[in-house]
Every structure is written in structure tokens, then in C-alpha cells.
Amino acid sequence: MIQINRAASRYSAKNDWLESNFSFSFGEYYDESNIRFGALRVLNDDTIQPGKGFGLHPHREMEIVSIVLKGTLKHEDSLKNSGNLQYGSIQRMSAGTGILHSEFNPSDNEEASILQLWFFPDESKLTPSYEDVTFDLDKLKNNLLPVVSPSPSEQVAKIHTDLTIYLSKLDKGKELVFRQEKGRKIYVFTIEGELGLNQESTLGRRDDARITDTEELTITSNQDSFFMLIDLPGGE
């Protein structure tokens, strides 16, 4: 089954320095029917103005992934980690038993655009940890490139949840087939462009698809597209 959620249906929050679009319940937005999709709890699509950001704040018992789409994101935390991330970089933070961190756009003149995702970990009371990785942008072309996984490598960040995040840039008219084990879930988010799914559904810019009971997914690009696919465990 493929459930489509349109970009226009997302809850939007905006102030003088931040514009956020929430794909799941978050902050002041609460919808009992839209709390999570499997292990995926939060997907926020944020645009941060120059010189602004999120001050020091706490997290616990979450795996947090930030994907930079434009500009620069500066991270600092209570473990004394610090890093500047740009397009082509992934940040993974395990909040575990508790961590404080801040996220800031250090630019004087350029907006920062990021996707931030929260996942439930497979086990509680993990030791807090942080890493950032840079992946090969050329490998996105007409390919599903893993960037976050329980099995890390030099360009793949480790997550403490049984899931894999893929990114892809698919040329117009090209097709990819994704296969997974029975009982798992698939989440697709179109960052840019337009996709067809199994010749039955169409995803536009910033739309998402929540897919269950589907062991083979054919993704067709109706125009040059950039998208994220997450292979998730089954369950709630």
C-alpha cells in the first residue's frame, strides 16, 4: 500500500529567522494520526536565516540525522564536538542518555536548508555520540546511495536503528527498482522534481510516500529529481 502525503498538507511554522515544515507531529503541531511511521518520528524541513539558529537544547533517547541541502550548518554539543556541514554532508547524533547541542547558520548572507530526522533507537540508554560524514556527490546519479546505516563505512554514518537512508539524483526518464524483505516499510521523500511509484502514484516536490506491504518498488523520474528513500523495520 502506498499512502501519499502532499507538501501542502504539512504543518508550517515561521518566524523572523526560521521556516519549518513538519511531516509528523512536532512542537505545537499535534495530530494523533500522524505521530510516526515505524521508527521514523520526525522529519522537519527547515530554512534558517544567516547568523541564526537553535541555541543549546537537550535531547534524549533519539537517533538524530541532519542532511544539509543548501548553505552551512554549524554543530556544537556537550561532548565538545564541533563541525560545519554543507551539501554532501550527513550528521548523526545519538542522544542516548542525554546530550545538549546547538545548530547554527554561520553564514553572513546565505540561508541554510536542512532536513532533520529523528528515529527511535533499537535500544535505550545508549552512550551519547556524534559523527559527520561526507559522501561522494557523483555517486548519487541514477543510483540509490546509502548515507546512513547500521553498518557504517567511510562515507556512511552509523545509526543504532535497523534502517538505511538512501539519497538519489535520478535523471528524467530513468528508473530504479528497490527490493526489501517482507514486512518492512519504505518511506520516500521527494526533495526536488517529480517521481512515479509503481506506475500508480506520483510524488511532487516535498511530497512523501509511506509504503507498506510492498516488497518491490519501481521509482520512475518524470523530471530530473532528487529524493530520499528510507528502508525501515516493520512494526508500529
Automatic annotation (TrEMBL):
It comes from the Bacteria. Residues 147-232 form the Quercetin 2,3-dioxygenase C-terminal cupin domain. Pfam families: Pirin, Pirin_C_2. Residues 10-118 form the Pirin N-terminal domain. SUPFAM superfamilies: RmlC-like cupins (SSF51182). Transmembrane segments: none annotated. InterPro entries: Pirin (IPR012093), Pirin_N_dom (IPR003829), Quercetinase_C (IPR041602), RmlC-like_jellyroll (IPR014710), RmlC_Cupin_sf (IPR011051). Belongs to the pirin family. This is Pirin family protein. The lineage of its organism: Bacteria, Bacillati, Bacillota, Bacilli, Bacillales.
